[in-house]
Amino acid sequence: MISVRLSYHSEYLGRQTSVTLLIPKKKIEGGYSYLVLLHPKGGDHTVISRMTSIERYLEEGDLMVAMPDGGTGDYLDDPYLPYEDIMGEELNKKLEHYFCVTRDSQRRYIGGLGEGGKAAEGIYREHMEDYAGFISVLPEGGTWRDYDLALEKKMRQLVYGG
Q1: What is the dihedral of CA 75, 80, 83, 86, to 10 degrees?
Q2: Domain boundaries, the chain
Q3: Could you tell me which of 85, 141, 93 has the C-alpha nearest to residue 113?
Q4: Residues 136, 117: contact at Cβ < 8 Å?
Q5: How far apart are CA 111 and CA 117, in angstroms?
Q6: DSSP labels for the chain?
Q7: Strand 108-113 vs strand 133-137: parallel, antiparallel, or unpaired?
Q8: What is the topology classification, in CATH, of domain 2-160?
Q9: Closest CA to 69 of 17, 112, 111
Q10: pLDDT at 114 over 70
């Protein structure tokens, strides 16, 4: 697993933004399937990889994960920061341009933890043509351990089909 931090100028934000990428070691014909994974409120693009074992869950798979910086808000509630458009359009174009990812929307997913999961569902519903599905990780407890356990279950389903 390779971890990469991509910083780029967002046309929608009018400023630099960042995304952490987890890229499988093995090459995939036709490009990697990928998951755009949104962090919970108050986090940033690094928090999921720092606070969970997501890299371990992806070790043997061929799924690339992109964890964009969604700021400290709720993604969809700020009329001045169009995160829905960034996650639903701009980020996909950046990934397709700079990395070997699929252009097939049936191999593309969006998901998130906590508020990021709620936002992922909203983005998926607005951009269904761009994604095969979404995952939402909303654990019963509010600790990072609870998030990690719930994320492991979802990632195993997505990566390994079971």
Answers
A1: 180
A2: 2-160
A3: 141
A4: yes
A5: 6
A6: -EEEEEEEEETTTTEEEEEEEEE-SS--TT-BEEEEEEPPTT--TTHHHHHS-HHHHHTTS-EEEEEE--TTS-SSS-TTS-HHHIIIIIHHHHHHHHS-B---GGGEEEEEETHHHHHHHHHHHH-GGG-SEEEEE--SS-SHHHHHHHHHHHHHHHHH--
A7: parallel
A8: Rossmann fold (3.40.50)
A9: 17
A10: yes
Determine the residue type at 137.
Answer: V
Phi first, then psi, for residue 73 (nearest 5°) are -95, -155
The radius of gyration of the chain from alpha carbons, rounded to an integer in Å, stands at: 14
**Residue whose pair of structure tokens reads 């964009």 in the numeric block:** 68
Q: What is the 3-state secondary structure (H, E, C) of 39-71?
A: CCCCCCCCHHHHHCCHHHHHCCCCEEEEEECCC
The residue whose two tokens read 């399937």 is 33
Distance between CA atoms of residues 44 and 72, nearest Å? 7
pTM over 0.85: yes
- Judge contact between 69 and 42, C-beta under 8 A: no
Tokens 């969604």 identify what position? 70
Tell which residue, 125, 154, 137, has the closest CA to residue 40: 137
List, for residues 22-75, the tens digit of each pLDDT value: 999 888 888 999 999 999 888 888 999 999 999 988 887 889 999 998 876 666
CB atoms within 10 A of CB 145: 11
